Amino acid sequence: MTERTLPGTPLSDEDMQQGKVLTLNWPASLRYEWDTGVAIGRFLRELKNGRIIGRSCHRCQRVLIPPRMFCERCFRPTDAWQFVQDSGSVNTYSLSHLRWDASRVEEPILVAVIEIDGSSQGGLLHYLGDVRPEEIHIGMKVKAVWKPAEEREGSILDIRHFRPIDTAQDGPA
Amino acid sequence: MPTKVAIIGVGHTAFRATSPGLSYKELMFEAATRAYEDAGLDARSEIDSFLTCSEDLAEGTSIFDEYVPDQIGGAERPVYTVSGDTIQGLATAYMQIASGIVDVVSVEAHSKASNVVTPGELHAFALDPIFVRPLGFNAHAMAGLEASAYLATTSTTREQCAHVVAKNRRNALANPSAAHAAAIDPQDVLSSPPAFAPLTELEVSAPADGALVIVLASEERAKKLKRQPVWLRGIGWSTGSGITSGTDGSSADYARSAAEMAYRMAGIGDPRQGIDFAEVDDSYSYKEPQHLEALGLFGPGRAGAATADGATARDGDLPVNVSGGSLGVGQLFEASGGQKVAEVVAQLRGEAGPRQLKKAKTGLAQSWRGIPTATGAVVVLSRD
């Protein structure tokens, strides 16, 4: 195969760094403070307390996690707060070998959707931990591993990850 | 004859300087619930298509389409966002209905301006990165440039512009949904601290939070509903050349050409004869007279003096921004035009309460997408 020669002048990083090429740099410094509102505000406060709370819709009989003040199916206000378990089952998962910036990691990041016990469908997107990647399977029973109370700050990261339920330690699922 | 399309429902939250207790989703749900109740329609079975007017950078979330369906009844239904003002959203809804693919469309717009911690950075992001951003001035200064050019070209005075602010902030006193109602006089405006001279601080509209939903329907569907339809007689939109630094911007040409498009569709020859009242963009004091002239409602350089004489007051010949406008209600991002449409609909229905106009058969709403754009839209609405 003959090497293709493209027209134009090649550029290197060095050319850029030495100012041989005119460049323009605009660092974005946009900042936001989102109002969490009634539903997510309460949800985050309860995470700080080490609990997961949802909202129930009495028409479709679902318990929504994360909670919202309206039911998207029935298009009506949801009816009541309802605490749910901090356990659940793996709905689906992925072993992410790349970070958010596409750089490679040594050990894969274990990402999963957890269907929370006591809620209806969907669930929380979170990490799995204390588990070998090859052991992960859909339907696997898991439980939240919480940060110590004094470190919790009303964030989704107040849960460190979900670990497989050890029936010896946790009792039957 | 253009296809007839009607506004059959309107709902909105109160507009407030901040809204810390509610998420944008909760604001949108309230507006949608009110609008669908107003239209007498079931959200999940009787609305065919949903639009949200929003700009990702104002939300702080990209591909914002994905975050809107649940709270407007649009889950698992046809939904997308229009990155433009509400009146551009109405144009999109009109086209969907006129094309025959849907009969009923919901158009949503909102503002959570209080959640943007760095509004200056947001504005700077809209400036040309090569020619303008390196200069580092506050983007509102672009309005100062326009104001100087407009005042010089038309001999409009700063006092006349101050009358606009006093009128609109006072009009807002009769609007319980307005965020920035105030009993102020032109002298208060002129003596407020200089901001982007010739503009003072009080001549720049302040932001507000809130959400609104407008429901549109085909003629056939509209006539079957119990609600009196408000007919969309004409709609137009336009954008300038895109060279923000190359023109003095004294004449708001985008508003002129958007209006020409809307008047042509509505069959309006002399807008002053055909229009009873108007809600026009007043993001800055001078914008109201500048837009009124571009819309052909006043001759060049005449709107400022007419305002000072009371012609645009609630009891004047051509009431303008009876709702309070953006100066009185608040600057609402892409919902700004929608707030003006909501007021026109309320007036045409005779539901404007203490600010109800006696003569309200045909009204006009006009939007501008703000600094540094040269984009505007116009809609003409009438009872018949």
Describe this structure in words.
The complex is a heterodimer of chains A (173) and B (384). Chain A has 173 residues and is mainly beta. Chain A has one domain (37-170). Chain A contains three helices and ten strands. Chain A has helices spanning 13-17, 37-48, 167-170; strands spanning 52-57, 62-64, 70-71, 76-77, 80-84, 87-98, 104-116, 124-127, 141-146, 159-164. The model of chain A has no long low-confidence stretch (mean pLDDT 92). With 384 residues, chain B is α/β, with parallel strands linked by helices. Chain B has a domain at 5-117 and 207-224: 3-Layer(aba) Sandwich (Peroxisomal Thiolase, Chain A, domain 1), CATH 3.40.47.10. Helices cover 35% and strands 18% of the residues of chain B. Chain B contains 15 helices and eleven strands. In chain B, the strands form two sheets. A nine-stranded mixed beta sheet of chain B has the order 3-2-4-7-1-8-11-10-9. In chain B, strand 10 and strand 11 (375-382) form a beta hairpin. The longest helix of chain B is centred in the N-terminal third of the chain and has 16 residues, at 24-39. Chain B is globular, with a radius of gyration of 19 Å. Chain A binds chain B through residues 24, 26, 28-41, 68-70, 72-75, and chain B through 19-26, 29, 32-33, 36, 42-44, 57, 60, 69-71, 73, 75, 112, 114-118, 121-122, 125, 129-130, 133-134.
